[in-house]
Amino acid sequence: MKRRSKIAITAAVIIVALPVFILVGAEIVLNSTGVKSEIENIVGEALEMEFKIEGRIDIRFFPLISLAANDVTVGIKTGPIASADQIVIDPRLAPLLNLDVEIEKAHLQHPRLTFNSQAIDKIMALINAASDGPLPVESLRIESFSISSGGFTYTDDQTLVDFNEMNFRGGRIDIIDNREAIIDDISGFFRAISFTGDITARQISSRHFDIENLNAKLISKNGLITADPIELEYFGEQTRLGLDWDLRKNIEVIQMRVEMPDLNVGRMLKRTDENDIFNGLLKLKGEFEARGADRREMVKNVSGSFIMQGTNLTLKGVDFDKALDEFGKMGAYGFNDFAALITLGPLGTVVSHGYDQLEALEKMMAAEGDSMIQQLVSDWKVKKGVAHASDVAFSTQRHRVAIAGSLDFPNTRYRNVTIAVVDANGCIVNKEIVDGPFENPEVEETGVIQRTVIRPLKKYLKPECEPFYDGSVPHPSPAQKK
User: Fold this and answer.
1) What's the pTM?
2) Residue where a domain terminates, one of 136, 169, 184
3) Neighbour-count burial of 187, counting CB atoms closer than 10 A to its CB (0-12 exposed, 13-18 middle, 19+ buried)
4) Is residue 218 part of a domain?
């Protein structure tokens, strides 16, 4: 027999008990200090949390019998974690004789969840504090439900999630049948429920990203969730997403489409202390699919494609061409981080583990001035969570830089990523090879003999080479060089 969480048992008991209060007591009795306190104590002890009904409990007899509780809060020692301005249920009384709980309608007005790590720990403890005994009712179903102006906030040291406006309308939910809980996890909940809704979020941010002003339309039908469009601001730029989330089987499938038509790279890399170091517009488009029984497995099974393109991007404070002339001196100076930032866009902040590399780049390259990236193409194919460079390169006024290799996101590692300055034939002039963890990779730079002996001889011997790069970014023409 399945184990029952304390939350499920408590909910069933409360829903059975409240209609009984309607039959045996009038509003004046329910709202008396002693009765209301007894209700709060029973629920609070069952949940092992503080439960309060600050407002009145109203009984309505027209058009259907209903019970409304006003200003309801549930809290722990650190403060409230759940509240609602009003909770209204319309129970059917006759089925209660057979311990069948049928709710005609359920409505939550302005419910709010405020979670932190302590609240999550408490909720998980309640879910896991299970009993093997039978549930106290034969069945529990809600014929229809609605949520108005819902809110959800979660905070910890590195994460902020703030959904400020959620509105849903849904149909029938079967929760208990034959004293067995039908819903025992999140996936089971979405498989059991159908709804449509609108969601607005002020902010979703973590160490690696910052999302603001999210608006989404959701449709869920028995475990198939569609959100299209999802519109939001990512690094201050307008972004459009499409999402299909299939929970109908044990192996979940998520398909996502993302498009950023005008990503301002200056805002993406903006520093708070002074003007933008990098300016220009990028176009970004990607399609991804992930499969798995849990988040870790899904990350390992991501597949899809990602392409970013841009022209005439300005780099202030650094003469990139001058720096590339002395590329051999740059191997240990974080050029791999800078290359990741400009060729991966928003994902580059994960690989480069932050924005401080920009300041290090300016100081260590010792190449003051301004420069321009004339053309940028960053085309990646993703298989089993690993992004493989398909056509990744950018050109300055005098140089062309190409990148090959792979980025292993499940294991957060570079896989033999080669960053090379190439000539007009696509042959390597200078290179560095980056391998190992994103946060502390090994960088193999061009050796002294290669720089001082072999490379000068190549100018005279003109040996044939196997092109390292033959993609879509052309080499700067002589007319462009200065």
Assistant:
1) 0.72
2) 184
3) middle
4) no
Determine, yes or no, domain membership for 233.
Answer: no
Any domain includes 466: yes
Alpha-carbon span 56 to 29, nearest angstrom: 11
Among 433, 423, 438, smallest CA distance to 468 is for 423
Amino acid in the structure at residue 179 = R
Domain count within the chain: 2
At 382-429, the pLDDT tens digits run: 999 999 999 999 998 988 989 999 999 899 898 998 888 889 999 988
Residue 76: which of 36, 121, 37, 109 has the closest Cα?
Answer: 121
Query: Could you give phi then psi for residue 473, rounded to 5 degrees?
Result: -85, 115
- Asked whether residue 205 is domain-assigned, the answer is no
Please give the structure tokens belonging to residue 219. 């449709």
Is residue 426 domain-shared with residue 281, that is, in the same domain?
yes
**pLDDT (tens digit, 9 = 90+) per residue, 264-307?**
776 665 544 455 667 888 898 999 999 998 888 888 999 999 99
* Residue 280 belongs to domain spanning: 251-482
Are 172 and 272 in the same domain?
A: no
- How many CB atoms neighbour CB 181 within 10 A? 18
Q: Measured between alpha carbons, how far is 77 from 118 in angstroms, rounded to an integer?
A: 9
